[in-house]
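Protocol step 6 of 9: fold each sequence in the batch and record its structure tokens directly after the sequence line. For illustration, a two-sequence batch is reproduced in full.

Sequence one:
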Amino acid sequence: MKLNPIIAVLGFLGGLGGALGAYFLSAFSASLATNASITLIASILGLIGIWLFNKDYKVAIAQYVIAAIGVLFGTSLFGVVGFIFYIIAAVVAYTEKDKSITTQTGNIEEHYFGNPQEIKQYPTKSSSNMALWVIPILTVVLIAFAGIAGQMFYNYDMHTKGEGITLTNLSSDIKTSYGITSGSIKGRFTSDNDISSVRIKAVFYDSSGAQIDEAYDSNILGNVNAGQSYELNIPYSSSSDSKPARAEIRISESFDDEILYAQNVTF
């Protein structure tokens, strides 16, 4: 009994688990949805290696390795289990490869598929075997397409959400008293789109342009509904008597580092 198909199935299950985990966490990081899709597609396509093994073990090994890289590339830590099993499947497929003998005429190989009594003959340079390499190539193309398409959708979604954000009635009561500078930036936040787990941060700069502090809004910590208005309140406190010259308000979704919207406030 061949072991590489069993190990490949374990690779698929590991990749599937990583993809589902990434999909779940995409509620906290939108970019993870694209990564999860890459892992899921790579996991599924890796199973084709089981069929390819009975055609040409070299193509099957390539399919397993491509699937392993796709799974790991998609979700990194979440895809480690699937990656490891697919790599093991490739190694085992090599050890279970069919024995072959080339005849003196050089145009026939006899492949012994596990049982020496079962002999299958193929031309040494079979066009059908060469055509099998189209499958790993298409697998690479599909994985790359999933990544590109997902990134394009992500960028469009981020742009749309950023365009729909409005900050109004911005004001500041930051002042220095007894050597301590404190206060807050206030205003109103509205969005034309639903945004999950909004984070609003103000980065404070001195008159020379150097960053001196940063703080998060204390009111808006959860999901934002389209068309609803929210009160903005970003606190500032420093033991220095140096008042910040300006602040940049940065709005992001979930835990992504990419900024949806930014606006400067001058004091």
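Sequence two, same batch, same settings:
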Amino acid sequence: MPAAFLPTGAKSLKLGGVSNFQAASMSEGNPVKLGLVIEGGGMRGIYAAGVLDVLHDLHLPFEGVIGVSAGAIHGCSFVSGQKGRSLRIYTRFCRDPRFFRFRNWLRTGNLVDNDFCYREIPESLEPFDEEAFQHSKMGFWTVSTNLETGRPEYIRMRRCKGEMEPLIASASLPYVSRPVRYQGKLLLDGGCSDRMPLKAFEAMGFARNVVVLTHPVEHSVKDRDAALARLFYRKYPAFCTTFENSPVDYEKTQRYLAGQAAAGRIFVIRPRTAIPVGRLSHDPAQIEAAYRMGHDDARRLSAEAAHWCAEFTQPRI
């Protein structure tokens, strides 16, 4: 845990990669809070769904899950314990014009038919287990971007039915989605401000985290998504600045991730090569191949991940 988030009076001296505050907590029999952080990436996010289905079977003691955009969508089904649900939805509906089509955007201002994706699918076509979600031992957070402030919003969802706005906002891509109004705020995709919210989760007390990424380590961000921000969002200059700076911020985050991994504070699962699926693919075979990549990578690392989690979450006498 960064020194800035230690309790008053705690020292930041490191003892074998663990602060002496954390070492004292473990020696007193208190386990460290374990979190799960999931990157987005459009249809590439189905890689994360493959990883999550393996983690589901490992029964790791996660106390919190935070996801960005597609990572939030797949994380939601993970918290409700619905293994395989994301793959079924994406392969079944990727060719359905209501799932996402540019004609939707021309007609409604949204690339995605929100009524179909966030009401009809979870209520009847691929039912979401609301009861399991609400009774899960894992808290669930989404990340979205506040249009007016340009800052990320980390919203805890205690229920989904009737309160889907934070999830919709997290995956509402700029330019092709209408901003989502929630609690007086205008929100868009979380990837515009915080693509990998590890620091935010650490600040919430999750000292150890499994991190699921959707880019290989050698990936270099060359993001031109913000090129038209000043035209489309000229009323929101703070958002434009944040969006324009997001590639640089992401590279800084990658360096931070590398340092945290080297120190043993995070366990990273990421693709070894680029995920072979387009950001807005309509090809079920591509989607399943990307899912299998995530599933296979997680299976390969499953024993190591379970051992790593046990080190920090089991009380020490």
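Proceed to step 7 once all outputs are recorded. Observation for sequence two: The radius of gyration is 19 Å.
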